Amino acid sequence: MQICLNQKDLSNWSGSVLVVGFLEKNLEKQLSVLEGIYNPELLSKYLKEKDFSAKSGEIKKLDILENSPEKVLLIGLGKPEELVLDDLREGAALAARASIGSEGIIGILFPWETFDSTMAAKAVAESIRLSIFKDIRFNSDPKPQKFPQTLQLIGLSETENNINKEINPICSGVELARELVGSPPNDLTPSALAAKAVEVAKEYGLKYKILERKDCEKNRMGAYLAVAQGSDLEPKFIHLTYTPKGEIKRRIAMVGKGLTFDSGGYNLKVGAAQIDMMKYDMGGSAAVIGAARAIGELSPNNTEIHFIVAACENMVNGSAVHPGDIVTASNGKTIEINNTDAEGRLTLADALIYACKLKPNSIVDLATLTGACVIALGDEIAGLWANNDQLAEDLQQASTLCGEKLWRMPLQKSYKEGLKSMLADVKNTGPRAGGSITAALFLQQFIDDDISWAHLDIAGTCWADKDRGINPAGATGYGVRTLVNWACNQITNA
Length: 494
Ligand code: BES
Ligand code: MG
Ligand code: ZN
Known about the structure:
With 494 residues, the protein is α/β, with parallel strands linked by helices. The protein is built from 14 helices and 19 strands.
């Protein structure tokens, strides 16, 4: 999709779909922008009849005129005093879905005035591209959907080049993450995930290293390998590195949970646990590899970035972990596995130890880690835990910029009590109450104290059951945009 911002206003505009956003107050006055196309008085009367009052989420398709444009969509953006960037995103998504089937040019005229023009352009362009994404890879007779090739943001003056150069790599990263998450587990195996990561690395000039089972054994990654041992598929430990041109001022690591399927192991998922959805248990790794793809193309300065995934499956065979087994992670810590379904944290333990050895300033891990986090925050907000306030703030800022929602949660020290084991140094599972907090506390034990670290629990946000704003039903690609913003913006000291 080509994004253009060179059109001043609606006079002489031509294209196939025209989208105009309105605010709730003084609607009649605003309708004058359409003067060249409609008689404002008649239009106002018509909209009153049709009950259009520009409330947030309202959409009205006007009847087709004799000439261009073929479709005119009026979008409600809500109260002017409450207008935020997210309203533009939502409005754009609504308009985009209603424009599927058209070709040519889509023009959008929103009340841009209160926004920074670059931010508004990025928000709307991202929303348009991401909200119409459709995964047709597994359909035997796919019908490619039609959508306008050119997006004009009417009335915005910015340098198009910069917008196109930024938006397209980021959206491609999100789309890659969505495809990875959406892939069924018989297609996206740990080997396939590693192959995809290597493909991304080769295409965008990143270094790559895949550790095989024997390499992981040499590294004594007993926690990770314990999870992998119940599957017939080989585990793959993925490590990509982005090296900037010129001086390196900071080094960061992104670690993603990469369970290509989580059956629960011998603590098999039963009842409401939705075992068939556990293909998306690699959502953290998808965000990390999607971010690698975007960052590789954006090539930001100053920051060396490591992308790490301990990929495997959690399955049940004759050599699978028994509930009660004690294993040793690569830092020598012993772990009693009192629940084989708390497997993500076991794989992350060795991945985080590995990341710490690279001596980064900061580590961020993303994981579909706990059902408890979904209960706490629902499916629109991810949980954020951090041992460092600056890093937490930087991530919150990065997420606010792109509209991905994060909420900081506590690393309540006293809850560590719940992870005490009678035999080993620690258990992998605490009590039900506060389950997402004890999961974060478990991870923290594998982080060196002098490294700032944050953990994002994306169990709820990585999948949408139905169309939701810029996310079509299915995999959301959550995390890619926050990670890219965090890595590329010079906002941080660590
Ligand atoms: N992959 C799941 C967490 C999950 C649950 C993700 C729902 C997405 C939606 C994780 O491996 C898991 O099974 N966690 C257990 C932990 C429990 C055994 C302490 C859970 O949340 O039930
Ligand atoms: Mg599990
Ligand atoms: Zn899991």
